[in-house]
Structure formats: structure tokens, C-alpha cells
Amino acid sequence: MKRLLVRHAARGQAPSRSPNTGETPLHGVFFLMLMAVGLLLGACGSQGPSFRNTDVTGASYARDFSLTDQYGKHRTLADFRGKAVIVFFGYTYCPDVCPTTLLELKQAVQQLGDDASRVQLLFITLDPERDTPQMLAKYLPAFDPDFIGLYGDLDATAKVAKEFKVFYQKVPGRTPDSYTVDHTSGSYVFDPEGRLRLFVRPGKPADLTADLRTLLHSD
């Protein structure tokens, strides 16, 4: 909203002058006031941290989840308060994007050095029919033993995907069990206070490392 206000002000026309008196009419005064407020808000916003990935601070979605981890424990976002949290949606039978992204996320976290222990990656399955907690417990340690997999039934999966605005769709294969799942490939990053801050597209782990470091050391 702040950016929209500044943008409108920047695109507006200069206030006209009265042809008879040379004074700025009332609507011109209002325009100047609007511009001043917009510039002030923009200046205040610029004092926050600068990120390389998409800044979604203040978004009204991806607020929480209620799922079960690979060890059978109920989990919500509050369980990870105090750590930066990366949430990635995928499925264990994914042939390319999921394993590649998980490796990139691991790389990004490892580059933090001692701060790596202050980051938690959560893998939410979009394929609960095949990705049982037991399957997640076998799959994730191949990438990192600290990665946590989260599972919900079909209704819970649909609910969390809607909350995070994640698209997913089953694509039939040659047999009933050989289907694939098209899905959103980006990740969400929360700061240690549990606030959504970033949407991260795959392919640039160094940018994610830089942004995680910023989040972990912001006041």
C-alpha cells in the first residue's frame, strides 16, 4: 500500500494554477499533501532490511499450518519460534525440481556457518496418498538429517496449500500409482519471530544465504 501511494504521487500531474489569481486551487493543495505523505511513508519503509529475494513482509497469507511431522508429532509454526524457517512444498516422487531445490536449500543454509543451526527447513508434502510420515522419514535424511517433513491428509493438504497460495495438481501417469504432481516451486521464509518475510524462487542459493544472514542479524 505504501508503494502504491508513492507510485500514484509520482505519476500525477503538477497542480494547476488558477488563471485569475495564480494561486494553487484546493485540489492542488490536496495533491501536494498526498505527495508529501507518500514520500514520508516511502522514506520510512526504506529503513528496513534490503533483500535479494522477493520481500513479502506483511502479506496476509501463509500465516500458519497444522500438520504432523515424520515422527508423528503435531506441528505448527510456533514450534520453530526463535529460528528462521524455510517452508518448501513438494513430494518425494518428484523427479527433478524437488530434489534439486532441497539440495540448493541445504547449500544455502550450510554457507551460514555457525548460524546454520538457527535455520529450520520444513518440507510439506503435496502427495499425502504416497508420502506417509514413514516415507518422509526415509526420504529427507538423504538431503539433511535435520530437515523436517510435514504431512496432512487430503483435506489438511488442500487447506495448507490454500493458506500458502500454493498451486498443485495431480497429473495422471501410465498407471494409477505413477502420477506426478505439478506444483509451485518457490519457498517461503519466516524470520525468528514467526513472520513471513520472503518468497524464494529456486536457482540462487547464494542470494538465499545472504537474505537468511540479514534476517538472523536484524534488530
Compact description:
With 219 residues, the chain is of the alpha+beta class. Helix content is 33%, strand content 19%. An eight-stranded mixed sheet has the order 1-10-9-4-5-6-2-3.
Poorly predicted regions: 1-46
Strand arrangement, largest sheet? Answer: 1-10-9-4-5-6-2-3
Question: Strand fraction band?
Answer: 15-25%
Total number of strands: 10
- Taken in chain order, the helices and strands follow as HHEEEEHEHEHEEEEH
Biggest β-sheet strands, sense, barrel: 8 strands, mixed
Residue share in helices?
25-40%
Q: Determine Rg (CA atoms, Å).
A: 23 Å
Q: Count of helices?
A: 6
Write down the overall mean pLDDT: 84
What does this structure look like?
The protein has 219 residues and is of the alpha+beta class. Helices cover 33% and strands 19% of the residues. The strands form 2 sheets. An 8-stranded mixed beta sheet has the order 1-10-9-4-5-6-2-3. The longest helix has 20 residues, at 26-45. The protein is globular, with a radius of gyration of 23 Å. 24% of the residues are buried.
Give the SSE map.
Blueprint: H1 2-11, H2 26-45, E1 54-55, E2 67-69, E3 74-75, E4 84-90, H3 97-110, E5 119-125, H4 133-139, E6 148-151, H5 154-163, E7 168-171, E8 180-183, E9 187-190, E10 196-200, H6 205-216
Parallel strand pairs: 4-5, 5-6
Antiparallel strand pairs: 1-10, 2-3, 2-6, 4-9, 7-8, 9-10
